[in-house]
Amino acid sequence: MIQQAQKVLNNTFGFNEFRPLQEEIISHVLNGKDALVIMPTGGGKSICYQIPAILFDGLTIVVSPLISLMKDQVDQLTQYGVSAVVLNSSISDDLYRLNVAKIRRGEADMLYIAPESLMMPNIRNLLADVKVSCFTIDEAHCISEWGHDFRPEYRQLAEVRKDFPDAVCIALTATATPRVREDIRQILEMRQSESFIASFDRENLFLNVVDKSNPVDQILDFLYTRKKQSGIIYCFSRRQTDELYLDLKNEGYSVRPYHAGLSEHQRETYQNAFIRDDIDIIVATVAFGMGIDKPDVRFVIHHDMPQNIESYYQQIGRAGRDGLRSDCLLLYSYSDKQKINYFINQKEGEEKRVAKKHLDDLLDYLQTEQCRRIPLMSYFGETYNESDCGMCDNCLRMSDDMEDLTVPAQKFLSCIARTNEMYGASHITNILRGSKAKKVLENNHHELSTYGIGKEFSADQWSQLSRLLVRKKVLRKDPKYGSLIITESGQLVLKGEERVNGVLDRTQTAIDGSAASRTSSEVENRYDENLFELLRAVRKEMAEEMDVAPYVIFPDTTLMEMSFYFPQSMESLGGVYGVGDAKLKKYGKNFLNIITEYCGKNDIDERAREIKKKARKKKSSNKHEQIGEDFNDGKSLNHLAEEHGVKMPTILKHLKTYLEEGNDLRPEGILEASELSQRIVDEVMKSMKKVGPELLKPVYEDLDKTVPYSDLRLLQLYYMAKNGS
Ligand code: ADP
Ligand code: ZN
């Protein structure tokens, strides 16, 4: 039986192999045993009942709460050549009758239906006359009052189920809490059932938490390198949603708002436009997301703190269902935390206790200096064992710029101690920097021994340090007055018994994709973007004609593989991810024509599946040549600085010499070492073009001294590497 399942996977769906647990679940179900399936969003739940449905003789009923999703699923299955129908109020009378007839004649493999429809006498009569092999309950958490989305109609499913005593039952959900799980199993009276619980780690999501300093700019920086990508930006309030929407619209982004204050018609229109790639970005409150099955959402931004880990996880889970690398950026600020605290304090008793616990769990995640997957997975009862996931800000940071900040921390702490723990960060900073502010002089704080001992840091850096110390629980903030108080661990730092390591600037790290090391596949990194865009355009045209979402025809992953392997025959096209028999027949020619035409024009051959590693060149004897070659072979600037025991400017100097001797340098590798956003980089490039790249002072002044020399030096090299010195 399982061999047949494998065949369906290959031929119908065009996938090579099963994802974790899929094979076990399918084989369990094919053996007539009930299954409870718990898998994160994007884990691949659908196939677990779709493949059995294709293989079973009788009908598979799929209960699903959202009418909009049903149509989407049926559209997709139809494209795969699977006979699936839907019965609900959204379809025309004619289609309804046609679907009923199909079911009667035993021609439908699957029926998608809402729970309340199942209770209707005419449907019950219809189904009493056909053979039902499998009873599937999607979004099964709706059955439990403990879930986040309880639906009373779901309760009656236990009753309906008795109509089909011989059908095997599968219940599926992405909700992980044990209580909900137990509820599902009990209420549905699942026989000899087994639970299949997949890992909740979504490896393809890059988790990034940065301090919120200037959110609109931070978001613009982020979006700048992600043109034409689909994404969702969550805001706390309707007002914030509308404001950010306008900001982005004014910057020329293709964006719409979504919140409960809009009419139902507007919301539906915007949501559809998003699903169909007519617009790129949705700025939304938490109201947005249920019923979004779009596989190619490339990023989710939280402009404000989410309510708790559970909803955060659900929201970021909407990114990257297709398994491609996707970004999750959260802008974190102390005042957001205060806001949530304020709401919590309005509550009472048990409710308050639970809310507090939720906040603490969330803060553990936001403030951790370890891999973010550790607290996240631990919330879902999993232990995360890797030491470096390579896909979160902390793991990237750990590998390079941790600094020893013990001495400045001691200065900061002793200044707090000398002013009796009565002030906030900005006043302490003023004292350390020797400011003549009125508040400093009035309190005679210019007479303190710590006055003026901290001029090596800018005010901004001190404020970053103060945030870091709060995060590390060396300091805590008085919730009422905002004054900084030294904790026990802070005392140890003062005494020199504990050290402080960290990274000061967290507003920027890896905001633009360029700085983030990618663990994505070779295909993702190296597909031909021009061909990809051509294929996307054709897909969009076809989708419009057929009135379906573009991904229903082929997901991005498929187009990416086409633009990487350049298949030139129907046979090799059939080997591409997501190209099953039915789709190959229906669309193969259309896509193949474009690929062959493009390859002909650009003289590109079909790519053999393996790429030979570049043979390494011989080593050189000169230091700058050696460094230049190592750099071009892929070593990072930081790596080289460490290896040669010198500072970054020295490495840059060597590389400059190497360039000036007429060699090439790979420009993207230079940019990797810069923390600047792509937007600023482009501004600097423009300025260098204008005033020339040779001398830095004119550039520095042209940019109103906003970009420090250390960055300009790096960008000078970048400019020269790109444009030839
Ligand atoms: P879920 O319902 O758990 O959120 P889906 O069933 O929608 O997830 O699957 C997510 C995506 O992964 C879909 O685009 C689906 O086509 C794809 N997928 C599922 N199983 C596989 C597999 N074995 N190989 C490749 N892609 C798969
Ligand atoms: Zn990590």
Rg for CA atoms: 29 Å
Secondary structure category? alpha/beta
Overall strand count: 17
Shape: globular
Could you provide a short overview of the structure?
Helices cover 50% and strands 10% of the residues. The protein is α/β, with parallel strands linked by helices and 725 residues long.
Descriptive overview:
The N and C termini lie far apart (65 Å). The chain is of the alpha/beta class. Helix content is 50%, strand content 10%. Strands 3-4-2-5-6-1-7 form a 7-stranded parallel sheet, sandwiched between helices. About 2% of the residues have low confidence. The structure holds adenosine-5'-diphosphate and zinc ion. Adenosine-5'-diphosphate binds next to α3.
Q: Secondary-structure blueprint of this entry?
A:
Blueprint: H1 2-13, H2 22-30, E1 35-38, H3 46-55, E2 59-63, H4 67-79, E3 84-86, H5 93-104, E4 110-113, H6 115-118, H7 121-128, E5 132-137, H8 152-155, H9 157-161, E6 168-173, H10 178-187, E7 194-197, E8 205-211, H11 215-224, E9 230-234, H12 238-250, E10 255-258, H13 264-275, E11 281-284, E12 297-302, H14 309-316, E13 326-332, H15 334-346, H16 349-367, H17 373-379, H18 393-399, E14 403-404, H19 406-418, H20 425-432, H21 438-442, H22 459-471, E15 475-477, E16 484-486, H23 488-494, E17 501-502, H24 522-526, H25 529-546, H26 550-553, H27 556-565, H28 570-574, H29 581-602, H30 623-632, H31 637-644, H32 648-660, H33 667-672, H34 678-691, H35 696-702, H36 709-723
Parallel strand pairs: 1-6, 1-7, 2-4, 2-5, 3-4, 5-6, 8-13, 9-11, 9-12, 10-11, 12-13
Antiparallel strand pairs: 14-17, 15-16
Helix pairs in contact: 1-3, 2-3, 15-16, 19-20, 20-22, 25-27, 25-29, 30-32, 31-32, 32-36, 34-36, 35-36
Bound molecules: adenosine-5'-diphosphate and zinc ion (ZN).
The site of zinc ion has 7 residues, from α18.
